[in-house]
Specification:
The complex is a heterotrimer of chains A (375), B (523) and C (370).
Chain A: H1 10-42, H2 47-59, H3 62-87, H4 95-117, H5 123-152, H6 156-175, H7 211-229, H8 231-241, H9 243-248, H10 253-280, H11 291-301, H12 306-330, H13 335-349, H14 351-358
Helix pairs in contact in A: 1-2, 1-13, 1-14, 2-3, 2-12, 3-7, 3-10, 3-11, 3-12, 4-5, 4-6, 4-10, 4-11, 5-6, 5-10, 7-8, 7-12, 8-10, 11-12, 11-13, 13-14
Chain B: H1 15-20, E1 21-32, E2 35-46, E3 50-54, H2 61-69, E4 76-81, E5 84-86, H3 91-96, E6 99-102, H4 114-119, E7 125-126, E8 129-130, H5 132-146, H6 161-174, E9 179-183, H7 191-206, E10 210-215, H8 218-224, E11 227-232, E12 235-240, H9 247-255, E13 271-283, E14 289-300, E15 303-307, H10 314-322, E16 329-334, E17 337-338, H11 344-349, E18 352-355, H12 359-363, H13 370-374, E19 385-386, E20 389-390, H14 392-405, H15 422-434, E21 440-444, H16 452-467, E22 471-475, H17 479-485, E23 488-493, E24 496-502, H18 508-515
Parallel strand pairs in B: 3-10, 3-11, 6-9, 9-10, 15-22, 15-23, 18-21, 21-22
Antiparallel strand pairs in B: 1-2, 1-4, 4-5, 7-8, 11-12, 13-14, 13-16, 16-17, 19-20, 23-24
Chain C: H1 3-24, H2 30-44, H3 46-60, H4 68-89, H5 94-122, H6 127-151, H7 175-183, H8 187-200, H9 204-222, H10 224-234, H11 236-241, H12 246-272, H13 284-294, H14 299-321, H15 336-339, H16 342-351
Helix pairs in contact in C: 1-2, 1-14, 2-8, 2-14, 3-9, 3-12, 3-13, 3-14, 4-5, 4-6, 4-12, 4-13, 5-6, 5-12, 7-8, 9-10, 10-12, 13-14, 13-16
The chains are: A mainly alpha (375), B alpha/beta (523), C mainly alpha (370).
Chain lengths: 375, 523, 370
């Protein structure tokens, strides 16, 4: 204990903790990229050309950068959703479902509200309304799981997964039925386009990057502030770190669990809302598939820290965005990116493997993110 | 330390003595991260003797035994069993050498029957199936032979701890153990049950079994041991015979300095009823009523000690009083304010300081800094936060002040509580709880597992509170602690307060009888 | 398993069957509907039963396994690909190719579970995270290889997906043959016997799953292996002190569990249909876990719970058959998306514990540290 010297200067402490926290993720990415290269070689591709394509496709031009930001936007929101839940001791595998619910409701408000009202709304009312309704519905969707956890002990892992399938089935039902785009040429399960007044403006002319990206960065900062600087954040973290001590300290544990889950769902719902209002201008079945798992990987890679989540989301976005250029250059299928991302996740989760490979000594106690089925 | 070298039994005695030695540990050294748990330890055990291994928590007794039993491996040194150097890689090897161990925390599976627990690892199998009948028969036979009455078909989880301990002893005998290690066996027993255990131990030695008896209780070693080896900070200090020593000398060897065995406590007048408990009943998580209709009061300026063997409802009682568990019936008031079934925060704000039984589970967030832990119950109000925004400066100042005044040994307030030693972790809790202005202190097992220095410190803090006119409810399974600190003593047995007496009039024997369930009207 | 839960299971199955009989009785005789529902229930419950057994072995030994979904998916893929390679590349016979496909599926399950065991036992990774890693890895790898093996540069198939050698045959239990002389000329008798016969005519993995339920029960509760497995899941330290190698026991049981998940994977691409599509397991690995929990970590209980989920899936399948005769007031039953919600909602209801709390093994999910 005494030998473990800690600097008391706040700046040094922060620098130290950044380098401690980023070491394993950086090495995990490095290792996964090397392994990915070996896989590319094994299936007859040129790893250097493939990675060159990946970088060019994601960073090589204004348009590439814009598209990376477009990809990153939902990743940041969904990653924050999972990260916030982790901080509160909850594992939200349901970002996918919450995102779909948020998207469906944003789309509904976006295309149907003017019809119901019989007049069009100004953008400063219609757009925020579409976003907020989507966000809240995502929060309620996740809040159900939170309430089940708090009052019955039903484990959130299985319940969020079940809610994913329920969301998927229900949106299929809606998008093939009452909410289906009725235009005669349409055969796809998708909603009509939302009104102009519910669309988020682009930041630059001719590029798809929209204000949603800026909003994502602001929200990330807000979540960091909420978690670390407010009493609510203290309560969420305490319940996450030790629910028994939280109860002892007078924190309402049940309420905090429900609140954490709702906040997490709201972030995931935002991911869906922003995709609808900022990018696609409608909700289409199947667009949300896979986001839930990507969000888990991003939250883990970002060590559940909002800044880490933003960086991890940018990395994943760059890989997704660059993969089509990679495919064009080397004929490597874009699914390769999923494999590399899964490997990154494997190494981040099993940091013992990385520590073993690079002979890094473990400092500090193991982070417990989830608990068993108990109760 | 001690000058009485005449008592030291030098290694390599006469040939004749060596023939009797069934187990010998030579030069055992074991390093754990940050701790030298065993430092060139020498120890031997003669056939048919009870050899006590005495030392305070963390002296290295359990480590030495775990090395002999094969749960850990020594860095240096060797173990010699029956004259041969033994290679002990795992408990399998030690069991094969005839060594059995009864652990401090029982190694029993509550959802298995006695027979299943006993046979586990050494199963009798007939045509692929477990032969439960054969095992039961053998257990019954051992029970009769050694006077260890157990029902082979009972579920272990439903048995009282005293009986569970017997199951553990039967487990070793089932494996034909000739050397039995008992690790702190009396911690969970009443004085009478302990006497019963000592009888069983003497019976066993009479039949040629040799026993290593690990304890930190001086009275017990003097009563039962043939020889006593004292350990301190990973080293063997001395080996003595009970007839040639006394409590004071043993305590001196254990701690390395003079120990005042009694707490310095002035007479103090108790005034004003602070905590009043009327007809309180509490259910545990299995929904069994573990506290029945309990009534008592604690007055300002007094320590009411609740004595009792662990698991007689003390945990649920303190949880109900502090708001961690809703009572099933009855009434709890502090200074006249009805707090029955209120959440912990309301009770805390009514003037409660709570030193919880399980410091790592309830009392601390181990991954939080010392500063955050010291503000754990106050973070939400001014000056620790303003308009729901935390004030880190206040956290920091508060921590520095408390670290200084409660002598918490930590490199800085930013160190995680999990990195502190047990004694310092407890001091963080004590500092947080006792620095507030409170009317009532509920301290549950406040010194369990701590070193003597920390114990003395926490005892003196509790007495300080009492002298300041605060009401103190002390719950402890250590009868010595209860007797040293309390002004009045209540005895809890099977969820009821069976007696309340003035501390001065109480005797160990009488308290022990009550703890064992001999019902008496309130004295 | 207590009576409350068994009666709940019976009730749900009766309700589900009742709905189908009510809807379909104008089209088919009730006996025929019930037997066909039963036959479907048993068949579609197969991967759930095996998945739940997989969970029982892992968790009885103290390792939480939410990676069963991914293990099934990987096994389904490699079983199918294995059978195709054996048939087209190594030009083995149809029967042997299919049999080897099953073998590859089980082997894949074992390998994936070895990874899970390494993560959770050796590297002490949070077990739910470890399982999630397996699931994500499975989605990524099967998606990548599904394209690469058939359309990649080095593919032996040159850009086409060849037909798989086929699926496992139905094993016929000769009840009808036995009863033909007894029934004689009575045609209704023979028809009824034929209807009942359908329940027993199942495919090999379905039959194996039921046998494995009882074998697992016996192993867990009556053998040395079972006693030690349960011991390391309840109190690993106690097992360690009597000389049981906790690590070995846990590894072995997780790998056994993985083999069960592998066999469940084989059900999808070798027993049910001869093709693979990404994400085909569709959450059944997770539903298996719910069955395991509802069955209180016992093989027979888990099987009973799996049958409930099987029945709700059978309802969905039968509603498509009776689509045209669904009365207007029951119109929602036409919507497969809505009927398809049943297993997921059932799972959530079960997890609330209102039908009886269950108790996991005490050391479930806790890495063992000496």
């Amino acid at each position: 204990m005494q030998s473990d010297k800690q600097s008391s200067s706040p700046v040094m402490r922060i620098l130290q903790s950044i380098s401690d926290a980023s070491l394993i993720p950086v090495l995990a990415i490095l290792t996964a990229v090397i392994l990915g290269g070996i896989i590319i070689k094994m299936v007859g591709g040129d790893p250097f050309l493939a990675y060159k394509g990946l970088i060019e496709g994601s960073l090589g031009s204004k348009k590439a950068l814009s598209e990376t930001a477009v990809w990153a936007t939902p990743y940041i929101f969904a990653g924050l959703a999972v990260a916030l839940a982790f901080k509160g001791g909850l594992f939200n595998i349901g970002a996918e479902g919450q995102l779909a619910v948020g998207a469906v409701f944003s789309a509904l408000i976006g295309y149907a509200l003017p019809e119901w009202l019989g007049f069009s709304l100004p953008i400063y009312i219609h757009l925020p309304l579409a976003i907020i309704i989507g966000m809240l519905m995502g929060g309620i969707w996740a809040g159900i799981v939170g309430a089940l956890k708090a009052y019955t002990g039903g484990h959130e892992v299985i319940n969020t997964i079940m809610m994913n399938y329920i969301a998927l089935n229900t949106t299929s039902f809606l998008l093939n039925g009452v909410m289906k785009d009725k235009s005669p040429t349409n055969v796809i399960a998708r909603t009509p386009l939302i009104a102009e007044s519910a669309r988020m403006p682009a930041i630059f002319d001719g590029l798809r990057v929209h204000w949603g990206f800026v909003l994502a960065l602001l929200v990330a900062f807000f979540i960091w502030w909420l978690l670390n600087k407010t009493t609510l954040g203290f309560e969420i973290r305490t319940v996450g770190a030790n629910p028994d001590a939280a109860q002892y300290a007078g924190i309402n544990v049940k309420r905090t669990i429900i609140l954490t889950m709702m906040l997490s769902g709201m972030l995931a719902g935002l991911a869906g809302s922003i995709e609808v209002t900022g990018l696609n201008y409608r909700h289409e079945l199947g667009f949300s598939i896979g986001y839930g798992y990507d969000a888990i990987a991003i939250a883990l890679l970002g060590r559940s820290h909002p800044l880490g989540v933003v960086l991890a989301a940018l990395l994943f976005a760059a890989m997704r965005n660059g993969s089509s250029r990679m495919q064009f250059l080397t004929q490597m299928p874009v699914d390769l990116i999923s494999v590399i991302q899964a490997l990154i996740l494997l190494f981040v989760a099993a940091d013992a493997i990385i520590r073993y490979i690079y002979r890094i000594k473990s400092k500090g106690e193991r982070v417990v993110l989830t608990r068993g089925w108990g109760g | 330390m001690t000058k009485k070298t005449s008592n030291t039994r030098k290694t390599g005695d006469t040939r004749k003595a060596n023939e009797n030695i069934v187990l010998e540990a030579r030069g055992i050294t074991k390093q754990f991260p940050g701790v030298l748990a065993n430092d060139s330890v020498n120890f031997d055990l003669r056939k048919g003797e009870i050899h006590a291994l005495l030392g305070e928590n963390g002296a290295g007794k359990s480590t030495l035994m775990n090395l002999i039993y094969g749960l850990h491996h020594p860095d240096k040194g060797e173990v010699i069993v029956n004259g041969k150097t033994a290679v002990i890689q795992s408990p399998n090897d030690s069991i094969a050498l005839g060594i059995g161990m009864v652990h401090q925390h029982f190694m029993l599976i509550p959802v298995f029957t006695v027979a299943e627990n006993v046979m586990l690892g050494d199963e009798t199998v007939k045509r692929g199936s477990l032969d439960r009948a054969a095992v039961s028969a053998k257990i019954t036979e051992i029970s009769k032979q050694y006077g260890l009455d157990v029902d082979p078909n009972a579920m272990v989880g439903s048995l009282p701890v005293g009986i569970q301990q017997r199951v553990e002893i039967v487990k070793t005998l089932y494996r034909n153990a000739e050397i039995v290690i008992l690790d702190e066996p009396t911690a969970v027993l009443t004085p009478q049950e302990a006497e019963d255990l000592f009888r069983i131990m003497r019976d066993l030695t009479a039949r040629g079994v040799s026993i290593i008896f690990i304890t930190h209780k001086l009275k017990e070693v003097l009563a039962v041991a043939d020889r006593i080896t004292v350990m301190r900070a990973g080293r063997v200090i001395n080996t003595v015979k009970p007839a040639e020593t006394d409590s004071a000398q043993l305590a001196n060897m254990m701690v390395g300095r003079q120990v005042i065995l009694t707490v310095d406590k002035k007479d103090h007048k108790a005034e004003g009823e602070v905590l009043k408990v009327e007809g309180l009943s509490v259910r545990d998580q299995r929904n069994l009523e573990t506290v029945h209709n309990v009534s008592f009061s604690v007055f300002g300026g007094e320590v009411l000690g609740i004595a009792g063997v662990q698991g007689n409802g003390q945990t649920e009682l303190s949880e109900a009083l502090t708001g961690l568990r809703s009572p099933a019936g009855g009434k709890v008031t502090i200074d006249g304010q009805d707090l029955t079934g209120k959440p912990p925060r309301t009770i805390t704000e009514a003037g409660l300081a709570h030193i919880p039984e399980d410091r790592q589970r309830h009392g601390l967030v181990l991954s939080y800094s010392v500063a955050d832990n010291m503000a754990l119950c106050d973070y939400y109000h001014s000056p620790f936060s303003r308009r729901a925004v935390l004030q880190p400066k206040v956290f920091d100042e508060n921590a520095r002040k408390l670290i200084k005044s409660f002598d918490v040994r930590t490199p800085s307030p930013f160190v995680n509580a999990g990195k502190l030693s047990g004694g310092n972790q407890q001091k963080v809790i004590v500092a947080r709880e006792l620095s507030r202005s409170v009317k009532l202190v509920i301290a549950n097992q406040p010194t369990r597992g701590l070193d003597v220095g920390s114990i003395e410190y926490i005892h003196s803090e509790i007495i300080k509170m009492r002298d300041r006119g605060v009401a103190v409810l002390l719950i402890s399974a250590e009868l010595d602690e209860i007797m040293a600190l309390s002004d009045r003593i209540a005895v809890m047995y099977r969820g009821q307060i069976v007696a309340i007496v003035q501390s001065k009039k109480a005797t160990r024997e009488q308290l022990g009888l009550w703890m064992a369930g001999a019902h008496v009207e309130t004295a | 398993m207590d009576w409350k839960r068994f009666s709940f299971i019976a009730l749900i199955i009766i309700v589900l069957f009742g709905v189908v009989v009510m809807v379909g009785h104008t089209k088919q005789p009730p006996l025929l509907i019930i037997t066909s529902m039963l036959a479907t229930t048993i068949a579609v419950a197969t991967p759930l039963t095996l998945g739940a057994l997989s969970g029982v072995f892992c968790e009885r030994a103290g390792v939480v396994n939410i990676g069963i979904e991914g293990m099934m998916l990987m096994a389904a893929f490699f079983g199918w690909v294995g059978a195709i390679y054996m048939f087209h590349v190594f030009e083995l016979g149809i029967g042997i190719s299919i049999a080897l496909g099953v073998f590859f599926a089980v082997l894949t399950g074992a390998i994936m579970s070895l990874l899970h065991a390494a993560l959770s036992i050796t590297f002490k990774v949070d077990q739910i995270i470890g399982g999630t890693v397996i699931n994500i890895l499975a989605v990524g790898l099967t998606g990548f290889l599904n394209r690469q093996l058939f359309f990649g540069k080095l593919s032996v198939f040159g850009g086409t997906v060849p037909n798989s050698p086929g699926v496992l045959p139905t094993l016929h239990v000769p009840i009808t043959e036995l009863f033909t002389p007894i029934c004689g000329a009575a045609t209704t008798c023979l028809q009824n016997v034929q209807a009942i016969n359908r329940v027993f005519d199942q495919k090999p993995i379905a039959i194996a799953a039921i046998l494995l339920v009882f074998v697992s029960h016996y192993v867990l509760f009556n053998t040395r292996w079972g006693l030690r497995t349960r011991a390391v899941g309840e109190h690993p330290q106690a097992a360690d002190t009597v000389g049981i190698n906790v690590t070995k026991m846990r590894y072995a049981n997780v790998i056994i569990g993985g083999m069960f998940a592998g066999l469940a994977g084989a059900y999808f691409t070798i027993e049910s249909v001869p093709s693979f599509e990404p994400l085909l397991t569709n959450g059944r690995g997770f539903i298996s876990l719910a069955a395991m929990i509802f069955g209180n970590w016992t093989p027979i209980g888990a099987w009973a719970a799996a049958l409930v989920f099987g029945a709700s899936q059978a309802l969905q399948i039968n509603m498509q058959i009776f689509r045209d005769v669904i009365p207007p007031q029951w119109a929602f039953l036409q919507q497969s998306y809505i009927v398809g919600l049943t297993p997921y909602i059932l799972t959530m209801i079960i997890l609330t514990g209102i039908i009886g709390k269950t108790t996991p093994p005490a050391a479930d999910g806790v890495p063992y540290e000496k």
